Amino acid sequence: MGDSAITTRGLCKDYGSGNGVFDLDLEVARGEIFGFLGPNGAGKSTTLRLLLDLIRPSAGTATVLGFDSVRDSLELRRQVGFLPGELALYPRLTGRAMLAHLAALRGGVDPRVRERLAARLEAVLDRPIRELSTGNRQKLGLIQAFMHEPQLLILDEPIAGLDPLVQASFHELLREVRAAGATVLLSSHTLAEVERVTDRLAILREGRLVVVDSVSNLRSVAVASLEIEFGAPVDPGQFRGLPGVLDVQAAGPLLTVSFEGSADAVLKAAAAHEVRAIHPREDDLEEIFLRYYRSGSA
Ligand SMILES: Nc1ncnc2c1ncn2[C@@H]1O[C@H](COP(=O)(O)OP(=O)(O)OP(=O)(O)O)[C@@H](O)[C@H]1O
Ligand SMILES: [Mg+2]
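# adenosine-5'-triphosphate complex -> structure
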């Protein structure tokens, strides 16, 4: 109990018609980066809002850093950094003015931490927020979540909207706060987006937790897919019989090959032809979840 940053017991938010989250028993250990995955409408944001007492549970409890989410919500929010999914900022203020305002409300925020975060994420601080691009607004959201150096960060889709270089800086930041002992819970739609930074993952489906496991266990059942663009159409039959290959789809010179295990056989077969480009395809969470159960990992 003392070791977990977040514990929920039978946590429910019932919106009716089967919408919401149901019977959630979740345990996030102190010091881990925990990924919360699920498709649109799965209940990720609802869960994160319940943890911060922004909405009230229909049943069950959540304990966050030892605080009851409902009874001790003020103290809890003081100690947590939160990035909401639908970020509402002050459109007329500059980023710098908005952050200074939020810092004054919190109290005890070191302005140097804020400036360091802004530099690392290459945030735009001197323009009115309404003039900023989506990604640059997201950076302000991240800075306000991290600026008081909280022990726990709850981040709703932090990576959405960030370009690849900023994503890399953000990942580095997550690793640093973990090294300093903080805990991070972050939501996402895809395994690919979070697998490099998270220790463990949960998959939420229609409001229910269906998988909680380490990234490596989930990765081992996930199917990899490559889109290979050839110089000319290639016979898909050459790929169908290869070891590990599960499916091959052809569309003109573009072949999509899904396989488990090593990519070696697929790449060697592809190399016999002119290859213009190779792109990894995003994993399908539903497929990962189904294979996870079939493989008996659960
Ligand atoms: N205030 C509300 N009133 C009624 N239903 C709601 C409310 N908020 C969310 N829902 C419903 O609860 C379910 C879960 O929504 P939630 O926003 O938690 O999903 P999500 O996993 O965050 O999805 P996304 O990936 O699209 O952000 C959805 O079916 C949604 O329509
Ligand atoms: Mg959401």
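# post-check
The pocket of magnesium ion (ligand 2) is lined by residues 44-45, 85, 156 (CB under 6 Å).
The chain has a mean pLDDT of 92.
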